[in-house]
Amino acid sequence: MVPYVESRYPVRRSPEYRLLAGDSLGATASLHTAISYPELFRRIMSLSGAYYPESQRIVAQYADLSALQLYMIVGLQETSFQTDTGVYDFVELNRTTSRLLKERGADVFYEEKDGKHQWGFWQQEIPDALRYFMAG
After folding, report:
1. pTM, whole model, 2 decimals?
2. How far apart are CA 49 and CA 122, in angstroms?
3. Residue 11 domain-assigned?
């Protein structure tokens, strides 16, 4: 996808300008993609990431994630969210993942605010997240 976009549009070609964004499992996939391909991606907008224990184990395997910059938001009403695999406390999953990332040198903006695990909450957060990345 990156070569396709770069061959057709006047975009910046450096990984520090590329942004992966996602909500729930999309945020998790964005983080794993950036960790796997730091030469391509370094910025992640994480909206209520589904950072299950396996994702946390993957993050914990890395000693240095200082190339990553994340904007993480999670809703305070996400403490018992029902998924196909069980009920999870997304607030605690995001807190723990944020801590793991910071311990490995990642630049992390993390915030918890009133909100549920749904598009209406995330949609309201996108402008602030984009301003965060545009400022830094």
Report:
1. 0.92
2. 11
3. no
Task: Please state, in angstroms and rounded to a whole number, the distance separating the CA atoms of residues 68 and 99.
Answer: 14
In total, how many domains does the chain have? 1
pLDDT in tens, 16-67: 899 999 999 999 999 999 999 999 999 999 999 999 999 999 999 999 999 9
Per residue, the 3-state secondary structure of the chain, as one string, reads CHHHHHHHCCCCCCHHHCEEEEECHHHHHHHHHHHHCCCCCCEEEEECCCCCHHHHHHHHCCCCCCCCEEEEEEECCCCCEEECCEEECHHHHHHHHHHHHHHCCCEEEEEEECCCCCHHHHHHHHHHHHHHHHHC
β-bridge pairing 81-83 and 86-88: antiparallel
Residues 6+ apart with CB under 8 A from 67: 15, 38, 42
Range of the domain at 34: 17-135
Q: Domain holding 28: CATH number?
A: 3.40.50.1820
Both tokens assigned to 44: 């992640």
For residue 1, being part of any structural domain is answered with no
